Amino acid sequence: MTDNKKVRMTYYPGCSSQGSGRHLDESLRAVLPEVGVEIDDIDDWNCCGASVGHIGGGQLPNLSLTGRNLAKARERGTQDVITGCAACYLNTHGGNEKIKADVKKKAQVNEALAAGDLKYDGDLKVRHVCEVLVNDVGVDKIKERVKNPLTGLKVAGYVGCQTVRPFAQTQAGGEYDTYDDPGFLDEFTEACGATAVPFQHKTACCGGSVAVISPERTLHLMKNILEDAKQAGADVISTPCPLCQTNVEMYQDQINAKFGTDYKIPVVFYSQLMAVAFGMDGEKDAGLQRNTITSDKLDAMAKKKS
Description:
Blueprint: E1 7-11, H1 22-31, E2 37-41, H2 52-57, H3 59-74, E3 81-83, H4 86-101, H5 103-113, E4 126-128, H6 129-137, H7 139-144, E5 154-157, H8 165-169, H9 184-191, E6 195-196, H10 208-213, H11 219-231, E7 236-239, H12 242-250, H13 252-259, E8 267-269, H14 270-277, H15 296-301
Parallel strand pairs: 1-2, 1-3, 3-4, 5-6, 5-7, 7-8
């Protein structure tokens, strides 16, 4: 993408954008236009099925939820569909591929969609925002937008286990370097002027939805992530995943109580770091006030506008 070129994409916010991941949504809406990505929300979008669809719905209802979103997106034309949520991406991308590849499933989905006068033929491309930033925008353009370098901030880049999975399975969601050791989050960190610390648990699972249902079963997973970040000297953990952000931040008190640790490590979204580095408002644009554990160091770097 050239310096002045802009691209328009259809945006699927996902359920977390209305609650625990609101600061991801707010910061993405702030930074994407700054790097030339204009977004149009899917009109009247619904849950993609990443949570409730798998728990009790079955495959066809799950695919139909995805199909409805994509049918609504198709009403805007053939521009790519993007989402910032790892689970939404994994589910929507996977559902889209199933609809494309399986004639019978496509027919069943369209039978369900017909009740709402909708139809979807599987002709859209579903992508993760991070992949768009890497392959369409480029790290150099992110660097160019930095007005407030995050000098001295040490960041552990925690990608999580879902964000890069489709990159490894198929190029339909976008080419990427590796699944086991992806480098894009560290590149974003360095582009913002911060320091990316060595972090071995960058694709480790935090427990995902199991942590929400039965946290006791997954506290050790989150402890491993936090301990790695602590040993690396990280001031904050950065992640693209709303569920990872919620779990690793929210359960630190329980982890401390169970294991006798003293973790109090802020967990932020990479897009919050970008918003601060771009010189944007620390609250309105970066949403720093929504983090349960505050990073005094990042807050001090953030611009506050009246």
